[in-house]
Amino acid sequence: MTQRPSGPFRVGDRVQLTGPKGRLHTVTLRADGELHTHHGVLRHADLIGQPDGSVVANSGGHEYLALRPLLRDFVMSMPRGAAIVYPKDAAQILAEADIFPGATVVEAGVGSGALSLWILRAIGAEGRLVSFERRPEFAEVARANVETFTGAEPGNWDVVVGDLVESLPGAVEPASVDRVVLDMLAPWACIDVVADALTPGGVVVCYVATATQLSRVAEYIRGTGLFTEPDANETMVRGWHVEGLAVRPDHRMVAHTGFLVWARRLAPGAVPPEVKRRASKSSYGDEDVELWTPGAVGDRQITDKNLRKRVREAQKAADGARQAASQD
Ligand SMILES: C[S@@+](CC[C@H](N)C(=O)[O-])C[C@H]1O[C@@H](n2cnc3c(N)ncnc32)[C@H](O)[C@@H]1O
């Protein structure tokens, strides 16, 4: 069972150390572990038993602030195969999809597993998450990342390697899924199988990077007649510098990550009383859009060599976490 991320540091805990000049190091605590830097050696034993948020010195007298990483720290620094959902968007996805403790949730694609971690936390031990990923190497990165953060692969999480359109009907009963989250290039291609899997009143949320994808998936959802009117939004978070009288927005921010589009599954045969007025051009044919390739929507692709490196990094971190946990 996963231990609470609080209390004094224990063997097996991941700890983020902020050292001289703000340099960050993340270690998994082992009874005989040591962090070697050119500033000296920090013994893990000096941290074990100390409260979270302690400051400890290494052999050279340099001080390190030790904190357990929060989920948002972990997802931002974990090995990535595919681009991750940023914490600000993950929080909104949980809210718009109304993901609740005990929910049965389907997610595709799993990518690097960032969103999986947020969903697993929100559904709790009573919930069930089924994540689909068509690229086996990405599924491996995601599995390793989730195991590194949680300490063990959660028993209520299934990763299905395959395309959602082909795999979803065989993986879940029709009308049995509470929530579906799609983070992929062409979510419209999955809406029909998602409609079959969702329970009446269930929610589908799509996270897309471009306005052209946003339009296409919203029109597709509307065109099925099986959902409520789709809603859409984007989340911009602007950090603030707060120091003395210098209280102002940060000079730089992440201006764009993605858009959310969401709708609810209607009961079979239901026709909502009010339908929004159609836009002048209500649908798009394939000839209207460029081919939906990663390049066409400006998606940066990881090379096979880099991806193999990420798989090794993620698995090494998971091995470390497993070894440390077995020493506990
Ligand atoms: C942007 S990544 C997902 C990132 C993930 N949400 C995270 O937070 O780490 C998109 C993933 O969707 C996968 N994918 C795209 N279409 C798919 C489909 N039809 N079925 C399953 N996986 C799909 C891709 O292989 C890719 O790994």
TrEMBL record:
Keywords: Methyltransferase, S-adenosyl-L-methionine, Transferase, tRNA processing. GO terms for molecular function: tRNA (adenine(58)-N1)-methyltransferase activity. SUPFAM superfamilies: S-adenosyl-L-methionine-dependent methyltransferases (SSF53335). Residues 317-328 have a biased composition (Low complexity). Coiled coil: none annotated. Residues 76-242 form the tRNA (adenine(58)-N(1))-methyltransferase catalytic subunit TRM61 C-terminal domain. Residues 303-328 are annotated as: Disordered. GO terms for biological process: tRNA methylation. InterPro entries: SAM-dependent_MTases_sf, TRM61_C, tRNA_MeTrfase_Gcd14. Residues 303-316 have a biased composition (Basic and acidic residues). GO terms for cellular component: tRNA (m1A) methyltransferase complex. This is tRNA (Adenine-N1)-methyltransferase. It comes from Microbacterium hominis.
